[in-house]
Amino acid sequence: MAGLEIRELECFLVLADELHFGRTGERLLVSQSRVSQLIGSLERRVGARLVSRTSRSVRLTPLGQTFRAALEPAYGALRAAVDEARDAARTIPGPLRIGFQGTADDHLLAAVTSFQDRHPGSSVEIAEIPLSDPFGPVHRGAVDAAVVLLPVEEDELVLGPVFSRQATRLVISTRHPLARRTEVSAEDLADVPLISAAEPAGEYWRRAHAPTTTPGGRPIPGGPAVSTLQEGVWLIAANRGGMLLCAPTATYHRRGDVVAVPVSGLPETALGLVWHRDHENARIRAFAAVVAERVP
User: Fold this and answer.
1) Which is more confidently placed, 178 or 280?
2) Which of 57, 72, 250, 296 matches a 20 to 30 Å C-alpha distance to 261?
3) Who's near 8: CB < 8 A, 6+ residues apart?
C-alpha cells in the first residue's frame, strides 16, 4: 500500500485493545478527532471498514479482526527491530582509534574514560600521530579521529569540538636570552630560528606554527625541520632553535633545560578533534559529544 503510515497502524492496534476512541487518544497523546482521522485514513487505504462505531459501542468488523490478527505480529517485529537498533546505537560497540599529536592531557584522558563508562561495549585505542603528518593517519584510516593542533583546512575532514584555547608558548633552551622573560612578543621571534614540521605536513599548517615573518614584517629565521615533537625538543635543548607550541604540549614536554614562554601578539592556539567525512560513524559522534562536554 503506497504511502502507508505507521501511525495509522499503531492507532488501529490501540483502538482494537481499548474499543474506545477517547481512551485511544489518551494513550497516543492525541485528540479523539485525530484518532478518527487516522482510522478513517487507514480504512480508505484498505478499501473497507475495519471498525464499527455506534453511539454506545466500538467494535472491530470481521475484516478488522482478521487484519488485527495479521498485523499484531508484524508490528511487534517492527517494534523489536527499532528497539534493537536503538540499543545498538546507544551501546555503540567496537573499538575507537584516537590519534594524539603530542600527548593526551588529563582532560582528554578523562573524556576517554567517560566515553568508555557510557559505552561499555566500546574500547578506545590511542596512537601517537607524528608532528610532520597531523592529518595523514585520518586520511589513511589508521585512526578514526585525531586530536590535532589547529588549523585544519582539508575539505574531506570534519572539525569537531575545539578546546584548549590558550596563548601560544615559545619553547626555547634555558640558554637562550629570551628564556629569562615572563612573556615575549611576536616581534621577538625575529631572534629565534623556528623549528618546523618536516614533510608531509601541509604548507599552510607548517607556516601557522613556524611563520617566516613577524606580524610587523620582520623576517623570522628558519630552523631545522623535524618529524616528531621529541626531535624538536632535543634540538631546543641543544639551543638550535625554538618551537611554537600549545600550552598542554609545552607543559608535557617540560624539562630542566628548556622553558615555555607565553607569546603576545599571536593568535591563541587551539586543539580540535577531526575525522574523515567519509568514515564518520556513531562511535566518533559519541566520542566528540563527550569531548565537547568534558574538555575545556
Assistant:
1) 178
2) 296
3) 38, 39, 41, 42, 45
Query: Helix, strand, or coil here: 114?
Result: helix
pLDDT tops 70 at residue 231: yes
- Return the beta strands (E) in the chain as ranges: 51-53, 58-60, 94-101, 122-129, 145-149, 157-166, 169-173, 184-185, 194-197, 222-226, 243-245, 258-264, 269-276
Second-level CATH architecture of 168-267: 3-Layer(aba) Sandwich (3.40)
Q: What's the fold here for domain 94-163+271-294? A: D-Maltodextrin-Binding Protein; domain 2 (3.40.190)
Q: What is the pTM of this model?
A: 0.69
> Per-residue confidence at 10, pLDDT binned at 50, 70, 90?
very high
Q: What does CATH list as the number for 6-90?
A: 1.10.10.10
Distant-in-sequence, close-in-space partners of 132: CB < 8 Å, separation ≥ 6: 197, 198, 199, 200, 201, 225, 226, 227, 228
Q: Which of 246, 221, 222, 209 lies closest to 132 in space, CA to CA?
A: 209
Residue 133 contacts residue 201 (beta carbons within 8 Å):
yes
Instruction: Please tell me whether the peptide bond between 200 and the residue prior to it is cis, using omega within 30 degrees of 0.
Output: yes
Alpha-carbon 105 to chain mean position: 18
